[in-house]
């Protein structure tokens, strides 16, 4: 690949795998990608759960979606989204490393804690979930993205314009360009380059602020970048 935008692969030729695709965020992203005409496979802890969730989603949107366990989805995907709980994030990626070698891995995980005062960002030894993924998946190209998109809006079939930007973080220009293009397939969403992987912590932590806004204003807050 080169930095020439014309060399960016066609998303229609790629399979998008969503690990944790049976949770609200993963299921919502899978819904939107499938509706955009992309080939999507849902991953879950078990193949049975992944297949059942994929069948339910396919019936709901009238578009075929495949299901598998997380390993099968990792093997099938060209771009693999990690949309799993923070607990067990590192362990799962270490287990799936052989299946993810050579692939673009998009980490969407927010390391957050919750107490009586609300959500707050957790410290991560590597700096962020995205950096932890990169430290484990040494033969993959790791990009951080989709941290701040409302799962409620993604899953709502009546929402035809999400009205938000997705900050995309990574060190490899072709990979971040491709993930920006992936974000652009969701109606009302724009992928915006947000810096290198070392800057992912701020974007992941921002989700705690958005959760606080949503609770205060009974909203589904997102992020918009001006003058870009």
TrEMBL record:
Which Gene Ontology molecular function entries are recorded, alphabetically?
coenzyme F420 binding; cupric reductase (NADH) activity; ferric-chelate reductase (NADPH) activity; NADP binding; oxidoreductase activity, acting on NAD(P)H
Query: Which residue range or ranges hold the Pyrroline-5-carboxylate reductase catalytic N-terminal domain?
Result: 15-111
**Which InterPro entries does the UniProt record give?**
NAD(P)-bd_dom_sf, NpdG, P5C_Rdtase_cat_N, STEAP_metalloreductase
Q: Name any Gene Ontology BP term.
A: NADPH regeneration
Provide this UniProt record's keywords sorted from A to Z.
Oxidoreductase
User: Where is it found, in Gene Ontology cellular component terms?
Assistant: plasma membrane
State the NCBIfam families in the record.
npdG
Q: What is this protein called?
A: NADPH-dependent F420 reductase
Could you tell me which species this protein originates from? Nocardioides marmoriginsengisoli
